[in-house]
Design goal:
It is rod-shaped and about 125 Å long. It has an eleven-stranded mixed β-sheet, sandwiched between helices. A four-stranded antiparallel β-sheet has the order 15-14-17-18, with no helix packed on it. 46% of the residues are buried. The longest helix has 21 residues, at 270-290. It has three domains: 5-313, Rossmann fold; 325-423, Sandwich (Immunoglobulin-like); 430-610, Immunoglobulin-like. β22 (462-472) and β23 (481-489) form a beta hairpin. With 618 residues, the protein is an alpha+beta fold. Bound molecules: calcium ion (2 copies).
Amino acid sequence: MRIFEKRSPMNPISIRIWKSIVAAMAISGSVSGYAQPFQTGHTSVTFNDPARSNRSIATEIYYPADVAGSNVPVTLAVQDRFPVLVFGHGFTMTWSAYENIWAGLAPQGFILAFPKTEGSLFPSHSAFAADLAFVAAQLQVLGQSSTSLFYQRIDSMSCVMGHSMGGGAAFLAAQQSPSIKAIATLAAAETSPSAINAAASISIPALLLAGGNDCVTPPPNHQIPMYNSLQSDCKTYISITGGSHCQMAGYNFYCAFGEATCSPSPAISRAQQHLVINRYLIPWLQSILKGDETAGEVFDSTLRVDPEVTWLKNCILCDQIAPPLNLSAMATGSNLVEISWTPNIPGQPVLLCYAPDGLFGGPTHGTVYQPGMTIPGGGVVLYAGHGSSYLHSGLTPAALYRYMAFSFNGAFTYSPGIPAETNTWPENKTLTLNLLLQGLYQPEGTMRKARNASGDQYSGNIADLITVEFHTVSGYGTPVHIIENTALTTAGLAQVMIPADLQQSCYITVKHRNSIEITSSAPVSLLSNEITLDFTDPGNVFGANLLVAADGLGLIYSGDVNQDGYIDSADMTQAENAALTFTAGYLPTDVNGDGNTDIADMTLIDNNAAAFINAALP
Ligand SMILES: [Ca+2]
Ligand SMILES: [Ca+2]
């Protein structure tokens, strides 16, 4: 979504705010409100373009240094790489007219290159544009060259700039070169081929400065059509009230001569116009090329109250690079995590990364990331786009997954990250038990269905319910996992799902509402995803504590009505009391599960009590 803003007339409050801003700038001693940490270094380089018959492009370069001078080292005070600004001069003008530009920008941490070609009365706009693009590319090459002054000091963010004819040529250069990430022009002139037409295929961030009193390239015929033609998601047009064409630069005889023959004349001084230019150029370049949020905020807030300009724009710099909101990661399965977020502003794209080790770096400004790419410092890109959620699939069960999301703008400037993390669900393992209850037992390995007063207590082939417990070797007393209300079929089968993170070997215990508790003869390994245990084999039951039926199958003793681990007179008393009142229903005292507590149940209890049956546990 684009945000369109238009300047509204200044009200008294705005004027008051403006006066306080100007006062603050005066106190800080800096036009832009920024400290100027660097001196300006200078060097001259001649580039040769083999694609154009080794065309020679003499270029003056200005850069941040620790001491001012020619061929001094790039500043060692910081190790930063600096964005490159390639600047095209105006018609018949030389680079030397633009000291206001390099003296304003190099101390702020930018490298400026001024190609000196096409200074004649009959310049080729397209050749000049090719020179701008070529010099931008060659600065990148110098950044890779260990013998260069600029070795490892050139940032990947390149911007084309220019004044008048050079401004028009900057549009042509940006159209040709996808490696150029931004364009900023001063009183850009329509060129041949048309810069206005070129703008229609340019979508990088753009800043167009114009003079309100420019009679050489009047804004309605030059910069405003360029602004309207641009396809950029973030473009700004600023008209300096009373500013002129030639006052964008230092004094130049030819430019001044041309300007003197038309009207209106400038209504502000050259020095005043230079102040306004740097007021916006510096924070805009800091925001767009370096991702400086504070600078973006200064740009937006200054523009909003500045009585010395009028403007058009379709974006907010400071909000463009705030992180997305409400990032959440939620496991929706043992191998699935759903990550969702709210864009900081509607439609703003988001870069989502994950890092198995939890170490995240940050994306490089200007870089277009695709899923699968790694960001410097850590993090694999999962998603880059305008959506608001992502399903991360194919994951490891019961594992911690960590995420970081960044917003980015049309120049691929990235916000700080916002983190989220979650654990995937454990993967369930299956435990299949085979067991038979004495009270419900029928020959040939089957059981009756337990009944209540009116019929079967449970539907289908469920005979009754049991509880399955997992006890560790070191401490049988407290189960580490309990699964209650597990269905036991009439065939004696019970199946439970156990979490994948239950890895240690455990005694597996079965409890039933009126049977003796049993457990496995030894701890059972839980490493397999499919575990089976046959509790009809006395060899698998601790203490071989089963009643072996005539058919050879082991049955779990029934009759522990009060579940104290013994079948004795206490159980008998409960059954007897229930029987005396002819109690019907699904009750613990109904040991044979026929829905009534009566003499048949008491007989079962009596026989087991006589045999001193009790639980055998580790
Ligand atoms: Ca008992
Ligand atoms: Ca009964």
